[in-house]
Description:
Helices cover about 25% and strands about 15% of the residues. By secondary structure, it is an alpha/beta fold. It has a five-stranded mixed sheet, covered by helices on one side. A two-stranded parallel sheet has the order 1-7. The model has no long low-confidence stretch (mean pLDDT about 85).
Amino acid sequence: MSKFKKKKDGGLAPINTASLPDIVFMLLFFFMVATVMREDTLMIKNALPLADQVEKLDKKNPISYIYMGKPASGYEKYGNVARIQLNDKFASVGDVAAFIAAERGAMREELIPFLTVSLKVDKEANMGIVGDVKQELRKVNALKINYTTGAGEALTNMQ
């Protein structure tokens, strides 16, 4: 009959894993804090005009962005005139009312009066499309409008 022998070669000591959950949770919290949520993918050219008296918007209030400009490279199939971009798709002027209604529907009722619509208009875009969008915003009573600009000398827009 065979006899069982116990190994006594020592080998490597087992790794202490007592602090492993702490490390995992530290990494989890780090990535939760450091990760930036994806914003809209711009499908239009959006060279903002410059202004010398610029104020930052208060981030406590909800902001919806409407982009206007010519389609960017890679989107030439949509033409070469100024277009409206709502979230991640091209839209027409008639879609602005539905967009504002959807934005209002997604927020709490007490925040709805504080909704600000920020227009990010390319400096090469014509004002006709901006006027049409403003008319649609008036129809749905979205009267808090902000024009987003870059900080700089305003006279450089004339060049």
